[in-house]
Amino acid sequence: MKKKQWFRLDTAALIFPAIKRYNWNNVFRLSATLNESVDLEALERAVMDMSRRFPTFFVRLRTGFFWYYLERLDQPAPIRRDYAYPLTHMSTRELRRSCMRLLWHENRIAMELFHSVSDGGGASVFFKNLLVRYVYHKYGVEVAPEGEIVDIHASPQPEELEDGFYRFAGPKAVGRGEEDAYRLTGTRDESGFNHLITGVVPTETLLEKAHEYKATATSFLAGVMAESIMKLEKRRLPGSALQPVKITIAANLRRIFPTRTMRNFVLAVNPGFDPAYGDYPLEDIIRIITHQLAIELMPQTMSGRIEENVAPQRNPVIRVVPRVIKDVIMSMVYSSTGERKGSINISNLGQIALPEKVAGYVRRFEFIIGEQYSYPNNCSVASFGGNTYINMIRNIHETDLERLFFSRLVELGIPVDIETNERQ
User: Fold this and answer.
1) CATH number for 368
2) Cβ burial, residue 281 (10 Å; 0-12/13-18/19+)
3) 138 shares a domain with 88
4) CA distance 132 to 334
5) Measured at the alpha carbon of residue 249, what is the angle toward residues 256 and 163, in degrees to the nearest 5?
6) Which residue, 1, 288, 361, 363, is the most exposed by fewest CB within 10 angstroms?
7) CA 249 to chain CA centroid, nearest Å
8) pTM above 0.70?
9) What does the pLDDT look like over 326-335, one tens digit per residue?
C-alpha cells in the first residue's frame, strides 16, 4: 500500500482549524473571467498538471492527537459548477474531502481555499499557473518558466513547501498588546447568504489620488474606509463611548523576506486612530495609517512579530498537549484578541501580473475574502487590466458602510461602477 504524503500546518495555519464553527470558517476566493466560455476538458487537464507540481494545495484536513495536519489527495477533487454565491460555507465534512474548491461557470474559473492551505499571495501564484496551463491545453500556447510561472514538469522546490515563519523569526519577540477596536454590527442574514458589492474603479485614477495624499493604494483605501467607519461610529455612539477605529491589513511577508514559500506567510497589522480625541480629517487619517504601516512593516519589527507566533510551538510542554485542549486554548485566545483589534480587514493583492501570452485571454481577475466570525464586513482588493476591483462582503442586511465608502471615493474624484449579487 502506497504511503500517504502529509504536511504539517504552517505557523499561521494552526489557528484556522481550531476556530472554525459549524456555520463559519476562514475561506477566500480567486477568480478569472475569460474572453470565451470555459473548456471543461482543458481545465481538467490543467488541474491534473497542477496536482503534480503543487501538492500542498490538493489536500484534505486531518485530525491528529496533538495537531491537525494536511494529507495529500490521491486525485484532485472534481471540478464543480459555480452554483451559488461566493464563499458558501465549507463544512468540516467537506474539508475532510478537500480543502480547495475548483469551480467554473460560463466563462469564469474560480478557486476557493481554506486558509490553512495558503494565503492570498501563495494562492495567487497557484492560480496564475493554473491559468497558464489552461491556456496551454485550450489554445496550445506555451509560456516559458519565469518569475512566478514555474516549470510544470519539475518537482516542487523545498523552499515552496517551507514554513517561512521559522526561517525568519527574530531574536526577540515583539508583543501584541493593543487596544480593542470599534466593532461594526447589523442585522444578520439568517439564510447565511454572503452579500457582495463590488466597486470597479480605474487603477490609474486610484493611484493618482493616493499619490496626492503621499500614500499607497492600500493606505489610501484604508484611510477612506477608516473615515467611513468613524462616521458610522459617531452616529451610533456618544462621544464618551467612542472606541479606536483600526483597519486590519494583511501584510504579505514575501515582500519583506526572501522566500518563495507557497504556504501561509502573512501577518496582520492594525493601523488606526481614536476618534475620542477629536475629529480627524481624511488627510490626517491617511497620514497616520501610512506612517504606522511604515513602522510595522520594517523587517526588524516583523521578525519580532514572527518570533511571537513561533515561540509557543517550540515550547516542549505545549507540543505534548492534546489537540482538543489546544483547540480550546487557541479559540479562547482568538476570541479575546484575534478579531477584537480591528474594525474591518482590507486585503490587497495589488496589481495582478499575468504572462503577456496569457493576459489577452483574461478579462478580469478578482479576490474575495469572507467575513470574519465576530464581525460582519470585510474588504478585498485586486487590480488587473486597468481596473481595480474592490470587493466588500457582508453577512448582514445593512449597506451603510458600503454606501459611505464608495460615495466618498466618488466625492474624491474616483469614478466607481457598482455591481452586486443582491437577490432581487
Assistant:
1) 3.30.559.30
2) exposed
3) yes
4) 38
5) 45
6) 1
7) 10
8) yes
9) 888 888 777 7
